[in-house]
Amino acid sequence: MHAEGSELPQIHAQLVVFAREVGELYTAERQRSRELESAISGIQAMYGQTMKAFAQVVEAKDACTRGHLERTQRYGMAIANRVAPELAARPEVAYGFFLHDIGKVGVPEQVLRKPGPLDAREWDVMRSHPAIGAQIIEPIRFLGEAVEIVRSHHEWFDGSGYPVGLAGEQIPLAARIFAIADSFDAMTSDRPYRSALPMEVAVGEIRDGAGTQFDPQAVAAFLELVDEGGIAVDDGDLVPVLAVLRAV
Ligand SMILES: [Fe+2]
Fold it and tell me: How remote is the CA of residue 130 from the centroid of ligand 1, in Å?
């Protein structure tokens, strides 16, 4: 009994040392995990910048007007905020919007910049860009569902789009939303073969496309934004009013 009693203070002292060591280990581990997190977010930011640069190379090569990527991303985010705010909050969605046409890197310039309608063979080449784009970004895991936006942004709600012919909710929601932003910007921008359409005409085309080309719910959100002045045309330049986006 006496021997056990005399060991108690010693055990206590050892426990104190042990607890301190565990505490120090925990602090060191937390520090390491913070460093790791910051290294990972640094790598992701670098990837993001590389992807943006890549997307801009495609924009320079394409017949689309300058600023198409920027504008479609903004319109897309504004509609996404209205339709599904939780979706708009995911960074992969913004990446997908920005990278949507990255597959055009595999389409020859004479097709992209042809100042007239494409023939059947040229259309086949053009229609390959969503699949090429998906192949390019699929291995980059942190882009997650961005790949589905890239792959499906030319699918139609009624199933008559490409590359697969998905219909309705088979098409990822972010891709259904983006299709509106992309078409609206295409119609309201000058192209080599035609001038920009007036905003009212473009809005009418989107309205008429509800249920055929576009998701009716996403069209309704787009029309609300237009009515509220959230997406407007000013002196021929499209000026998305970001206040709407920020307010949601
Ligand atoms: Fe496209």
Answer: 6
Separation of alpha carbons 212 and 84, rounded Å: 21
Residue that wins the pLDDT comparison between 144 and 234? 144
Task: Record the pTM.
Answer: 0.77
Ligand 1 centroid–CA 122 distance in Å is 14
Distance between Cα 39 and ligand 1 center (Å)? 33
Quote the ligand 1 centre to 169 CA distance (angstroms). Answer: 20
Alpha helices (H) along 62-128:
68-83, 85-88, 91-99, 109-112, 120-126
Q: Could you give the CA distance from residue 232 to residue 94 in angstroms, rounded to a whole number?
A: 21
Residue corresponding to tokens 């259904």: 176
- The per-residue pLDDT for range 200-217, each reduced to its tens digit, is 999 999 999 999 999 999
Question: Which SS3 state, helix, strand or coil, does residue 113 take?
Answer: coil
Question: Buried b / exposed e across 127-148, counting CB within 10 Å, b at 16+?
Answer: ebbbbbbbebbeebeebebbbb
What's phi and psi for 71, nearest 5 deg?
Answer: -70, -45
Q: How far is the CA of 238 from the centre of ligand 1 (A)?
A: 19
For residue 24, report the distance from its CA to the centre of ligand 1, in Å: 54
pLDDT on residue 77: 94
**Domain parsing of the chain, residue ranges:** 48-247
- Phi/psi for 62 (5° steps) reads -80, 165
Class assignment of domain 48-247?
mainly alpha
Taking 70 as the threshold, does the pLDDT of residue 241 lie above it? no
